[in-house]
Amino acid sequence: MKAKNSPVRFRIGKNGFFKGVVIAFAFSCVIPLLFILAYIIKAGITKINWNFLVNVPKPVGESGGGIANALLGSIIIIAVAAVIAIPIGILGGIYLSENRKSKLAYWARLSIDILQGVPSIVIGIVAYFWLVKPFGGFSSVSGSIALAIMMLPIVVRSTEETLKLLPDTLREAGFALGMPFHRVVLKVIVPCGISGILSGVMLSIARIAGETAPLLFTAFGNPYLSTSLTKPMQSLPLLIFNYATSPYNDWHDLAWGASCILLIFVLVLNIFTKIITRKWKVQL
Amino acid sequence: MESTIVRSIDYNAYFGDNHVVKNVNIDIPKNNVIAVMGPSGCGKTTFLRGINRMHELIPGATAKGKIMLDNEDVMEMHPIFVRLKIGMVFQRPNPFPNLSIYDNVIAGYKLNGIKLPKAEKDKIVEQSLTKVALWNEVKDQLNKKGTFLSGGQQQRLCIARAVAMEPEVLLFDEPTSALDPISTSTVEELFHDLKQNYTLIIVTHNMQQAARVSDKTAFFYMGELVEYDETKRMFTNPRDTRTQNYITGRFS
Amino acid sequence: MKTFENEAVIARGDSPRVITGSNTGKLKKTNREKHSNRQIWTESVFRRLLFIMGVLMVVLVLGIMFTLIVQSVPSIKALGAGFLWGKVWDPVRDIYGAFPFLLGTLLTSFLALAISIPFSFAVGIFLGEYYPKGWLPDLLKNTVELIAAVPSVIYGFWGLAVLVPIVRSFESGIGEPPIGVGIFTSSLILSIMIIPYAASLGRSMIQMVPSHLKEAAYSLGATRWEVIKSVILPYVKSGLFAGVLLSLGRALGETMAVTMVIGNTSGIPKSIFAPGNTMASVIANEFTEADRTVYLSALIELGLVLFLVTVVINMIGKKIISRFTND
Amino acid sequence: MTHLENELQAVKKEVLSMWYLVESQLEKSRTAMLHFDRDLAREVVLKEKRVNAFELKIDRDCENVFALFCPVAVDLRFLLATLKINNNLERIGDIAEGIAKYIIESSGDFDRTLFESTQVLRMYEDAINILIDTRMAFEKEDTILARSIFKRDEVLDQINREASARVGAVIKEDMTVMEDALYMLSIIRKLERVGDQSKNIAEEIIFYIEAKVLKHQEDKGKE
């Protein structure tokens, strides 16, 4: 009996050991994130005050100054990108979910898959040749379009996935009432999948809010406050990149504050998305 | 005096190359309950969905022939008009999950963007729910979501939704197959009341149900209409041996 | 009979409201038809709009590819295939060899992958098999997803401020030149950033393992670890591989964090602690400074290579996933 | 009320109509016997066709309900009982017709004293009452009433058993009434059958209401 028992005991011990290893590895992933969060917030939160939010950066050597230009720029660039990408993305997602078998849908789906994997820097290059070079200068709207291209696959995919999960009986119910196609889609299907679509939209905004690479060659950055869509514009990630790699401590401080704001914005948006998805979920 | 309301002439339906409904000719008299039965895959649901042009919503599906509704060919009309005149109720209750009971009943108006005064909407909701014997059960909770109701109530809500559009014909695609026996018999009783105002075509794979509720029965087999007759006759003295074999359960 | 009675009532005028009622009923029906005609028009417009969206998506990607190819033509013409193997990148002397960047990209990516895989698989196994439900696994899952949400520029900044000094002291400890920035540092940063991709894919794959397989093994007296090792992992190995590929795709294309901590030198790195450059970082650094056509075009050719490599890797990963989920 | 219930009610109503008809047939043939009314007797013979039509109609109705509704439990027993009751009623109709035919066949007015001496009148009265009470039991689903039928059938049996002796005595006394007396004997034999049929019907009623099979049991009334 004992001879038979001891390998079992060994196996049980091994089982426990590996469970411990898995748990240790799994939870240690969280540690760097917590470090980063703690560090950024600790370094950044002290820099944030009213002046920081409403002033533009001062030249090197002068202390003080703020990131108003980057804040406003980020808001404008993201808003324009969202205005471009959300309708196109949702309609595209609808197209993919409604035409599951057509040839064009196959290619469109493939394109979206490709687009999702394209490195952001490549999008930046392309946007540069499409929108910067032909129009003779960096502009915020070119940055917005580059970001919109980055948003597109996320919105399209989440819309498609959400709508695909809705039962066909819902569409049929709509059609059987004599509803035209567009009303079935807009009044029945989209409202039922609204939580999934919204979460896709918000996640895509969170994603582009921190994107820097496509903006390097498009919005470019601007040390002054600008609201013109055709002029270069500053944005938070650009400001962080430029000031973080600069040798000046004052600028580092600005970058820490900006990082903190950007991080909080992105995290809040992510958490908010989780909550909204759960709350707005239509019970089928 | 019975007058024909729906008449199919040489109706054929296909899924790609698959010929699922073959040359169906059938006359459906007004204010009758017609049961369509047959083994699964016999084309009965396809035929039913052909009547209000739901068939062609499936990619690759096509149809040939005529389906006359009041001497107008359904195949020539725009599907939207057809579906306004021919209501449909599905296998699983499918109330709109994002709408209240009240809005579900008038969904046909609301979601089609037809504006109605509040008083008229109230009237339609009450009348429709009364017709499906649901008014007394839900009149105090009209603002709750339609999906809070039980399965049988949901199905009656869906019937009310179809009835609210005042169609001439109501199609039922296995309307009780997802319901428990009690709800099933409630819905079946409803058919007898509804036939006063509407013509009902019911697809069912439950032949007892066909026998219980219908005036006339059509038996489909392998896409063909094998027999179409008074239900009483069909179940006591079928003409075709295939029908006999099917209703006696001797199908091989 | 019934209708006759009703008409009689109307004719006698007992109930005038009945008359108006029936009239508006008829009016309503015709209005409804007019309304529907408008709807039919809108419907066809809507269908066309959706179709255009479908076309737009294809055109967008084709356009990206086309632009990259056309813009890199000057460099392809001038440099040929040797571009990829050229060991020297010196724009001042008009010498463009992409090999240092290829090597840098591959080194950082695979190093990052090697570091991150144990962690992401552990997360996948933990969430997929050990504790699929409960507040703690939920918290872990959401936290790991947040790792992907943090902007890469913030990773870069944090790496610059925190990680670089640590690596520097580590390097001086083992006798390497204490630079701090370099391939090793960027791999560390990258490895954190790519954990969520393989982890979440692994989790969903492991959850898809049919329970009857696991139960069969349990019923033979297998321990949990043995079930994981001999049933679950073999079953999901292609899915896990796809997760690794997606992580790799992410690592290859990552720009900002790497640019900030890799050191940006265009030579061939002598060790993994040496500073270097990746394809993405060299584009980010030099694109706006490139003043000659060939210089710019060479950078774009780098972008094209990056694009093709990531697309191929992503496509393979997606294919594996879709085959896995369809089975 | 469900559709099936409606159908069953209709069948029941049909059976009751048939029952009234059969009762009136018996009643009429009695009146015809009492007053030697050959026209009335002929009417009874003619109306027998209607009884037969009823039988066919009820059979068909039952068949339809079986086919369309697949009844179970009490509904099933009701229909099974109805089919047999229908059959029994038709037989009673035949008996009424038979009696009426005797009246048409017989050469002249019956000797009135025979009604008393052979107890045919009393028996007739009892037979009709039994039939009426069976109907009441069916209509009201009253098993106590139905059980009482068994006892009352025994009275008819008693009269029937004594009939041969009685008729023999009557004939011995007065040979001229022999033909009439033999008719009386035949009528008594037939009325005894009415009792038997009613008893069968009562058994069916109990079967349908209580699901108890009393057929071919000796002590039926006594439980």
Largest sheet of chain D: none
What is the fold named in CATH at topology level of the largest domain in chain A? MetI-like fold
Strand content of chain A: under 5%
Question: Largest interface, and how many residues on either side?
Answer: A-C, 88 and 86 residues
Q: Quick one: how many beta strands of chain A?
A: 0
Instruction: Supply the number of helical segments of chain A.
Output: 13
Overall shape of chain A: it is globular
The CATH homologous superfamily of chain D corresponds to Phosphate transport system protein phou homolog 2, domain 2
Relative strand content of chain D = under 5%
Total domains of chain A, how many? 2
Can you give keywords for this protein?
heterotetramer; A: 284 residues; mainly alpha; MetI-like fold; 2 domains; globular; B: 252 residues; alpha/beta; Rossmann fold; 6-stranded mixed sheet; 4-stranded antiparallel sheet; 11 helices; 10 strands
What does this molecule look like?
- The complex is a heterotetramer of chains A (284), B (252), C (327) and D (223).
- Chain A has 284 residues and is mainly alpha-helical.
- Chain A has 13 helices and no strands.
- Chain A starts with a helix and ends with a helix.
- The model of chain A has no long low-confidence stretch (mean pLDDT 89).
- Chain B is an alpha/beta fold and 252 residues long.
- Chain B has a 6-stranded mixed β-sheet with strand order 6-7-8-3-9-10, with helices on both faces. A 4-stranded antiparallel β-sheet of chain B has the order 2-1-4-5, covered by helices on one side.
- In chain B, strand 1 and strand 2 form a beta hairpin.
- The radius of gyration of chain B is 18 Å and the shape is globular.
- Chain B starts with a strand and ends in a 5-residue tail after the last helix.
- The model of chain B has no long low-confidence stretch (mean pLDDT 89).
- Chain C is mainly alpha-helical.
- Chain C has 2 domains: 68 residues; 247 residues, MetI-like fold.
- Chain C contains 12 helices and 2 strands; from the N terminus they run αααββααααααααα.
- A two-stranded antiparallel sheet of chain C has the order 1-2.
- In chain C, helix 6 crosses helix 7.
- The relative contact order of chain C is 0.13.
- The N terminus of chain C is likely disordered.
- Chain D is built from 7 helices and no strands.
- Chain D has one domain: Up-down Bundle (Methane Monooxygenase Hydroxylase, Chain G, domain 1), CATH 1.20.58.220.
- The longest helix of chain D has 33 residues.
- Chain D has 223 residues and is an all-alpha fold.
- Chains in contact: A-B, A-C, B-C, B-D.
- Chains A and C meet through helix 1, helix 2, helix 4, helix 5 and helix 6 of A and helix 2, helix 4, helix 5, helix 6 and helix 7 of C.
